[in-house]
């Protein structure tokens, strides 16, 4: 039977693995399988997403397809890289903007004309139901990781309606799309929940059974997303899971999140690009882990035989004030806090000159003992704040076999060194006469 005739049957064949087998089993034995795959890829975009890796001697193996919303964020970028290493074809959903915002995933992107490209992204928006239905129908994912969100807690107080629409109803739109498309048995769904659900904590530490008490529009929107995920799992038998992730950071964390703000500010201060670092509530305590550990937990959640919800956390809580100390001591500066409330300040108590120069690369000529480096700005206070979060991930450890590999000190070291490298580039540019502008939120 001619190759072209077999391939034309693809458009009428059932989508997925068995549809492709109809074509491959019908091919003449002398037909080059590589040619067959190229013809299939030419006819339909779906073949790139359901994908069979062809090999003349081995035959075929199935390649899973993952769809990640929020692909340009910290978690989306790390998860995409992780899944590609696992042999997945990865589709990312990206919101259209007039600026490039793919820095975190640029190293994964290949020219679409190249062969064996297993990563690509589509434009989508969590507020557009028809758009989400179309991309899910086109990509036919085996797994959906819904990571997209307006995830800044302070900003959610300024944009509560948008936050609810994106973070709450956006989750419903994905669940409903999978149901309407008849993909409930094919597609597994991971919903990115948050420790902010616990808010005004009802017990310490927090587990899967701890009552929720959200304290921000962001957390309330995520509360709806959590329960609608549970509801669709129970009502329609969907493999839909919540990962209640506690704070997880990395060198590619958004610059306005407090941990990244601290390490980035530290780097700028160390190189003379910034005089002070302004922060909000220094008393807040958070359970911080590394994003690389946490995205592995996301993957493990969807590899189980039955859907369930899991708390993912390190089980260690740290005060923001202590995070500041740990970060600055990495470059040889011991920070001492004096004063109370909005008058509290962090000053240089001691400087280890050798440590500073060894890490930063220049002497601290612009810094002196007693100099104020940290100040409190009430602008960063939230109308209702969360003072303490610490998770108990016993269930995840037992059922998923998950264990964090990075300690908090490992995480801080990595973030400090990364931000120093970026700040050093700025310093070189300024020294060479280029204008380096500070962003509005620095």
What does the main sheet amount to?
7 strands, parallel
Shape: globular
Global structural class: alpha/beta
Strand order of the largest sheet: 5-4-3-6-7-8-13
How far is it from the N-terminal to the C-terminal residue, by CA?
66 Å
CATH class of the largest domain: Alpha Beta
State mean pLDDT (0 to 100 scale).
Answer: 89
Name the CATH superfamily classification of the largest domain: NAD(P)-binding Rossmann-like Domain
Stretches with pLDDT under 50, minimum 5 residues: 1-31, 40-59
Please tell me the CATH architecture of the largest domain by its name: 3-Layer(aba) Sandwich
Q: How many DSSP-defined strands?
A: 17
* Count of domains: 3
CATH topology name of the largest domain? Rossmann fold
DSSP helical segment count: 15
Question: Helix coverage percent of residues?
Answer: 25-40%
- How much is the radius of gyration in Å? 25 Å
Quaternary state of this entry equals: single chain
What topology emerges from the helices and strands here?
Elements: H1 3-8, H2 17-26, H3 33-43, H4 47-50, E1 52-55, E2 59-62, E3 65-69, H5 74-85, E4 89-94, E5 119-123, H6 129-139, E6 143-146, H7 153-158, H8 160-180, E7 188-194, H9 217-236, E8 240-245, E9 248-249, H10 258-270, E10 277-279, E11 285-286, E12 289-290, H11 291-301, E13 310-312, E14 318-319, H12 320-329, E15 333-338, E16 345-351, H13 353-360, E17 372-376, H14 394-399, H15 408-431
Parallel strand pairs: 3-4, 3-6, 4-5, 6-7, 7-8, 8-13, 9-12, 10-17
Antiparallel strand pairs: 1-2, 11-14, 15-16, 16-17
Helix pairs in contact: 5-11, 6-8, 8-9, 10-12, 10-15
């Amino acid at each position: 039977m001619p190759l072209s005739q077999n391939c034309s049957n693809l458009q009428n064949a059932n989508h997925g693995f068995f549809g492709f087998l109809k074509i491959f089993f019908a091919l003449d034995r002398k037909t080059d399988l590589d040619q067959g795959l190229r013809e299939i890829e030419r006819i339909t975009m779906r073949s790139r997403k359901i994908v069979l890796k062809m090999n003349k001697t081995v035959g075929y193996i199935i390649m899973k397809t993952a769809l990640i919303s929020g692909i340009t964020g910290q978690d989306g970028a790390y998860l995409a890289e992780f899944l590609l290493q696992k042999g997945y074809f990865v589709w990312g959903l990206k919101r259209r903007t007039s600026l490039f915002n793919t820095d975190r995933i640029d190293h994964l992107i290949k020219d679409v004309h190249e062969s064996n490209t297993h990563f690509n992204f589509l434009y989508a928006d969590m507020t557009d139901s028809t758009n989400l239905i179309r991309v899910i129908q086109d990509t036919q994912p085996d797994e959906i990781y819904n990571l997209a969100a307006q995830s800044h807690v302070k900003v959610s107080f300024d944009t509560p309606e948008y936050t609810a629409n994106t973070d709450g109803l956006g989750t419903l739109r994905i669940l409903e799309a999978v149901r309407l498309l008849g993909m409930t048995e094919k597609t597994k769904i991971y919903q990115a929940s948050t420790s902010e659900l616990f808010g005004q904590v009802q017990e310490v530490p927090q587990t899967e059974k701890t009552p929720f008490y959200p304290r921000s529009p962001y957390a309330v929107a995520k509360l709806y997303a959590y329960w609608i995920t549970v509801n669709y799992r129970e009502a329609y038998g969907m493999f839909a899971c919540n990962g209640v992730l506690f704070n997880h950071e990395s060198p590619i964390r958004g610059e306005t999140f407090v941990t990244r703000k601290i390490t980035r500010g530290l780097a700028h201060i160390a190189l003379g690009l910034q005089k002070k670092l302004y922060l909000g509530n220094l008393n807040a305590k958070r359970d911080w882990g590394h994003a690389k550990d946490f995205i592995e937990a996301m993957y493990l959640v969807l590899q189980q035989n039955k859907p369930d919800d899991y708390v993912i956390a390190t089980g260690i809580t740290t005060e923001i004030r202590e995070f500041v100390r740990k970060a600055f001591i990495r470059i040889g500066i011991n920070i001492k806090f004096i004063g109370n409330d909005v008058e509290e300040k962090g000053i240089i108590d001691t400087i280890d000159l050798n440590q500073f120069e060894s890490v930063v690369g220049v002497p601290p000529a612009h810094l002196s003992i007693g100099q104020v480096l940290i100040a409190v700005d009430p602008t960063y206070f939230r109308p209702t704040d969360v003072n303490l979060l610490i998770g108990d991930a016993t269930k995840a450890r037992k059922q998923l076999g998950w264990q964090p590999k990075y300690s908090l000190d490992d995480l801080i070291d990595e973030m400090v060194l990364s931000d120093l490298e970026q700040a050093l580039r700025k310093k070189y540019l300024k020294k060479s006469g280029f204008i380096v502008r500070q962003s509005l939120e620095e």
